[in-house]
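Protocol check, entry for the methods section draft. Step 1: assemble the input record (protein sequence plus ligand SMILES). Step 2: submit for complex structure prediction. Step 3: store the structure tokens unaltered in the notebook. Ligand used here: flavin-adenine dinucleotide. Step 1 record:
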Amino acid sequence: MPKILIIGQGIAGTLLAWELRNRGVDVTIRDSNLPGASSIAAAGIINPVTGKRYVKSWRFEAFYPVARHTYRALEQLLNIALWEERPIVRLLGKPEEVNDWSVRCMQDDYAGFLSERSHGGAWGPLLKPGFHFGIISQSGRVNLPLLISTFRQYALANGFFEEITHPEEPQESTFPNFDQVVYCEGWRGASNPYFPDVPFRVSKGEALLLRFPGISLEHLPEEMLKKTVLIAPLGEGLFWAGSTYQWFFPDTHPSEDGRDFLLNHLNDMLGVPFDIVDQVAGIRPTMIDRRPVVAQSQINTKIFMLNGLGTKGALLAPYFARQLATQLTEK
Ligand SMILES: Cc1cc2nc3c(=O)[nH]c(=O)nc-3n(C[C@H](O)[C@H](O)[C@H](O)COP(=O)(O)OP(=O)(O)OC[C@H]3O[C@@H](n4cnc5c(N)ncnc54)[C@H](O)[C@@H]3O)c2cc1C
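Step 3, stored output:
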């Protein structure tokens, strides 16, 4: 079995390490906690139907069962709760939106994913008046920050995680002791010299953490809510609300523009006061063609990349980590 070094422990590096260890590989992970990491800012939402035209996600039926199986297995391994299946209440405003939703609900390949409802459920009393409601099923959330921090503790305890103070420079002299090296660097992969042709177009995303003062825990919604912005309950009265898409940005920090954008959209949806308790930001490793990247370097064939998870790391990472692990161990 090969000795494999993984550089980067976001969701891509975490799941690849797990898949490789399941195949008996001697794995080492290195990460230097660089600013702008995407997985720890993300809500980890899996949403099968996205966009203004309510289109089903690419190959959702292939990816979803692998994701569910993987996160449930990791819950067992790490003894934590990671995976929640929760519907999304989709707010519909304009008559065209209501009409387009109804049309989609009647299409055979959307059966089991989309439906209509006459009320907003527990969200109802928190909303501005005038909305219609759709429901998205087969949606859920993975607690990515908890998975990454707990897996890191597990990897440290089992001697296969090395925290490094400086980013691992992509250079051959660093890797004499490994048969293969896999870069799972997220957006920083855009400057990896072993992969000059990968079409990165990274995007910054920001989100707010909210509380609803004066509403008791038992009256707070358990479903997710989506219009332009998505609100997801994180438990114990805390809600994640995001996100922004910024293609040009001066730094990796939360910004005033990001906060204003989110507040405007939250105020369009919500008719009750809320407190902002935090703001987070990360850089998504998005590609021009919006597809994940599983690649072998043309410059050095012992070097690989798992990247390009874009806006859908929670759904895509389990499937593509599994594919790459199979390639690396079975050729
Ligand atoms: C605000 C926001 C909301 C999001 N919401 C969702 C969502 O709800 N659902 C969803 O599926 N996706 C969501 N995403 C997208 C998701 O976060 C990404 O698809 C995914 O996390 C990318 O994971 P990754 O492992 O490729 O990269 P990252 O999570 O960025 O991890 C890369 C890691 O590599 C390390 N690293 C990089 N280079 C080096 C080096 N040279 N040496 C050492 N260490 C290095 C970094 O320190 C980091 O830990 C969201 C993103 C943002 C920003």
